[in-house]
Structure formats: C-alpha cells, structure tokens
Amino acid sequence: MTAALAQRAPVRTPLWYGLDEVPADLGPSVLTIGVFDGLHRGHRRLVDHARDVADERGLPLVLVTFDPHPARVLGTGKDTATLSSLEHRAELAGAAGADAVCVLRFTRDLAGLSPEEFARHVLAGVLDARAVVVGVNFTFGARAAGDVTTLQQLGAGLGFTTHAVPLLQAVDAPCSSSYTRRCLRAGDLDAATRALGRPHRVDGRRSGNLVTLDPDTAVPPPGRYHADVNGRATVVRVIDGVGVADGAGAAAPVLRIDAGPAGDGPVAVTFHGRAEGER
C-alpha cells in the first residue's frame, strides 16, 4: 500500500468512510488527526509537519477527520456550520500532502471510548500508526480526558510517537474554523478568504438555475455575490432557509444562479465577493 499511495494521482485522494473501508494492506502509517473543517492555513501547517514526518520514515500519511462535527453530537452549542464537504476536504488534504483521508463517524459510542481504547483500537490497531501528529490543544477520548501528554504516554506502549504542533498565530487573520464561520455569517468574505488561504467554496446539487446545499452548510448572508460555478464566473444569490432538506426539519440554503446555461447535477460554487449594489 505504501508504494501505491506514494504514486497516487495528484487529483483524487482516497477517501475511506469509516474504519471498515481502510485497506487491509495499508501497513504502518503516519496519522494527523482533527476535524479539519475548511482545511484552513492552520490545518495545512499541521499537515505540512505530518508530511515531513511521513517522508522521513517512508510511510504514507493518513489524515483522520470526523463526521459529523463532534460538537454537534455532543450538543455543546458551538457553531458547527460546514466549511467543506468531506469530498472537498479530501481534495484539499491531498493537495496539502495527505496520501489518504479516513472519516471516523462520530457517534455517542465513539465519543464514549476511553483515551486508551481509542488509541489502541483506532490509532495503533486499524490504522497501524507509527507516528501521530496533532495540534498542541488536541484532546480525545470520553469527556476529552486525553491530551497530548496522554497520547505520548499511550503511544510509547503502543508503538507510535506523538508530535505536537504549535497553533499558527497569523498576523493578518486568525486561523480557526470558528473565526471563518463568524466571518462568513457577517458577510466578510475577504476576512474568510484570508483565514482559509483561498476563497470559500460550497458543494451542492443544481437543478436548473437553483443549487441546493446541505442544511448545515456555511454560507454568507442572503444577497448577490460574484462567484464561480464549476469554474465559470457568474453571479449567485444566496436565499436563506428555503425548503426542508432533512428529517429534523432543517431549512437548507439555496443559491440562485443569475446567468449562464441551466443544468443539473453536482456543482462547486466559489464565492469571491458581494455583487455591485449589495451591502
């Protein structure tokens, strides 16, 4: 698996939905763990460090993420609007240097694992970790009982090293998913772009000139915006809370494409700024 991953196509990164999809022949690996929503500049610093460790050891780098957002399952009240779909997250992770992405389904059962159970079964077990790269504020296990020190202690007995990366302190913009969500909700696309290191993109499904997004997608306030739709420049209108998209009754954001040929199917919409006359 190591050789196969090293020669991966640059565009498509393997995306494993759950531990059951991890190839049996993966072999030893280097892991970096986090939600990684949006893959902002701070996240990419973590991936850069993990890539260096993987290269030093000649091992594949697997980015481990969670879905849904842990805070959503635990009911912390934190804003968890999605900055990047799992498919886009995998695309960004591959561009940043990851060889594969493993999505852990975050459930109450997973949340209930002790730090030792998580490290033994998931990290050292299925993913065969030889090194784990995390941020200095990383916590894991039931009630967030484990931290970097815990991971180091467990890793010493389970056969992996732990590498803690300091958080990125950016001068021009904070590098956090929470900050990026606040910028988007306020309509400050320039600040969101600086935090992400690129313009904000959403993935949805187009029918005619309408694009329906998942209910929890992070979008700017209602209004008209300059955007690219599958790479084609146009203007889109954000229509907030149109329709009911899931069993819980959550209203899904809808985008209306102002110009261009109609079409159907999956689309990627990248926001660049408010259209003329919009505030």
UniProtKB/TrEMBL annotation:
Residues 199-226 are annotated as: Disordered. This is FAD synthase. Its EC number is 2.7.7.2. Belongs to the RibF family. InterPro entries: Cyt_trans-like (IPR004821), FAD_synthase (IPR015864), Riboflavin_kinase (IPR023468), Rossmann-like_a/b/a_fold (IPR014729). Pathway: Cofactor biosynthesis; FAD biosynthesis; FAD from FMN: step 1/1. Residues 26-178 form the FAD synthetase domain. It catalyses: FMN + ATP + H(+) = FAD + diphosphate. PANTHER family: RIBOFLAVIN KINASE, RIBOFLAVIN KINASE/FMN ADENYLYLTRANSFERASE. It comes from Pseudonocardia ammonioxydans. It holds the Pfam family FAD_syn. GO terms for biological process: FAD biosynthetic process; FMN biosynthetic process; riboflavin biosynthetic process. It is an enzyme of class 2 (transferase). NCBIfam families: cyt_tran_rel. The lineage of its organism: Bacteria, Bacillati, Actinomycetota, Actinomycetes, Pseudonocardiales.
